[in-house]
Design a protein that fits this description.
Elements (H helix, E strand, L loop, with lengths): L15 H8 L2 H17 L5 H25 L10 H25 L5 H15 L2 H4 L4 H21 L4 H29 L6 E4 L5 E4 L1 H31 L1
Antiparallel strand pairs: 1-2
Helix pairs in contact: 2-3, 2-7, 2-8, 2-9, 3-4, 3-5, 3-7, 4-5, 5-7, 7-8, 8-9
Length: 243
């Protein structure tokens, strides 16, 4: 790794438009939006219009608002985006997501209201670490950014739930939990560790040096594989429904 480590494997060189693209966390945003597609595509009746609205709402809420708030909280991506701009992105995107939810509750079913309310709550509770960070945990990450998008998109299309939908939401929870576990080590090494050194000795007497590159290799390789794989899974399921 270079002396000045990138804060994430997908982070671009700092400056101008590159900071805004980095802010999106592209592989992770695509990953979590794939759960929206999976939920909508699994519904008994496929409704492309409702998928479109749900996809846009989660893009605004997760891809933009949540990530802007996260960058305001300690600048983990080290972007040069002014705080006022980040607040503007967060507020406008959250408002847009809520507006879509309100529209859905008014035109589809009032039963969508609990999803809207929870979405607003968890956006602040997780990202801004309300209640002493009680919601800023692996469980709530996996629930809010994995199971919740899938369940919301399914409900918006079907206005009902069943065991199959529950199993699918649970699978999205598991995938997000795996993502969280893998990315936690990568974030630690890239953002907080100044140096990592050691030696691994094998049973045959061979020795291999351990450093940051070695420690990052497996979790980041897994993340780079899983992100497009989940997106392809969602795309494949969507294409099958469109046939």
């Amino acid at each position: 790794l270079p002396a000045q480590k990138r804060p994430a494997f997908y982070a671009l060189r700092r400056g101008a438009w590159r900071d805004y693209l980095t802010l999106l966390h592209p592989p992770y945003t695509v990953w979590h939006l794939s759960y929206v597609v999976l939920g909508a595509a699994a519904a008994p009746v496929f409704r492309p219009d409702r998928l479109g609205w749900a996809f846009l709402a989660f893009f605004l809420g997760v891809g933009l608002s949540s990530h802007a708030l996260d960058e305001l909280h300690g600048r983990p991506l080290k972007t040069g985006i002014p705080s006022s701009v980040l607040w503007g992105i967060a507020a406008a995107s959250a408002a847009g997501a809520v507006a879509i939810g309100v529209y859905g509750a008014a035109t589809v079913s009032p039963s969508i209201w609990p999803f809207v309310i929870f979405g607003v709550f968890i956006l602040g509770a997780y990202t801004l670490e309300w209640f002493g960070g009680w919601f800023h945990t692996d469980f709530w990450f996996a629930f809010a950014w994995g199971a919740f998008p899938c369940a919301t998109a399914y409900w918006a299309s079907a206005v009902s739930f069943n065991l199959g939908a529950g199993a699918l939401a649970a699978a999205c929870f598991g995938l997000s939990l795996a993502q969280r576990k893998l990315s936690a080590q990568a974030r630690l090494l890239r953002r907080k560790v100044a140096r990592a050194e050691g030696v691994i000795e094998f049973q045959d007497g061979a020795r291999s040096r351990i450093d940051e590159t070695w420690l990052l290799a497996v979790p980041e390789a897994a993340l780079k594989i899983l992100a497009p794989t989940v997106a392809l899974l969602a795309a494949g399921w969507l294409l099958l429904r469109l046939q």
